[in-house]
Please model this.
Amino acid sequence: MRPVLSGMILIMKDNEYYIESKSENLIGSIHKLSSTFSSPVVLLAIACTVQSQTSIDVYYVGNMGVHIKWEGGGCLIDGLHDYYGPEYQYPDSAVVNRMLNREVSFDETDLLVITHVHHDHFDSDLSARFLQKRPGGRLLAPSQVLDTLARDVDSYEGIRNQCWPMNKGPYRADKVKMEFTPVRHTFQQRHYWVENYLVELKIADRTIVHLGDAEASKEAFAGVKSIESVDLLIMPFWFLLSEDAIDLAVSYFNPKVILATHLSPLIDEDTLASMKKLFPSLILGRVPGHVITIQY
Ligand SMILES: [Zn+2]
Model:
């Protein structure tokens, strides 16, 4: 563990609270804060909060995929799949190989979470290989995903015990707790048959919510409990297409930071720019890489 500033959310972009995320930059952090707080007493108080703590790092990997890391563990949500069509981002094969083989930066990531069965979120073969490499690993997914896996993969019996159907209830492991709530998939005329789940991930006192391909409507959220304050909301971009949809997301989750995902690689810059105006700490998931560090 390294010493870091405690009790602060670090937002890496477009951020009024911006401070450096690395403890080695503590002096720089205090220097930056000094432009906000003029009193040396305040600076001293902030310096005194330095202690041994840990942080959560979130990386965007493609489409709605994120890699969430904490000390001693990690999970992938909708982040292990390959090419589906020109409108969908996906992790490149070198990154997929590292995920599968438990290599650099994925060596403690043993949880694979999948919101629904569509192949821009899920791949049977890759999911099975992820579990085979990790005897203690878990796949947390709707029954529909697990049924598909059982049908597609000959080796399913060997990994069956590693699979956790989301309708079984919350999942708890070492530092993490997950809850799952069904929320209907967008574009019901076509996708009425798809089981889509909202994932609420709690690590220490921090909360991350991933919506999967949720429909942006009050009706779809009827069974969703509101959460007082979400540290990071990962949602599909269509929640940015109307005031009502944005209000819905904010009223349920009051997110400190939003990561907008499911953006097509073919999307134009004007549309991206108009989305950026809508929420002060919006991050657009376009380029794979580090999104945010959340400290606790
Ligand atoms: Zn979908």
Q: What stands out?
A: The CA atoms of residues 240 and 277 lie 10 Å apart. DSSP finds nine helices and 17 strands in the chain. The pocket of zinc ion is lined by residues 116, 118, 185, 213 (CB under 6 Å).
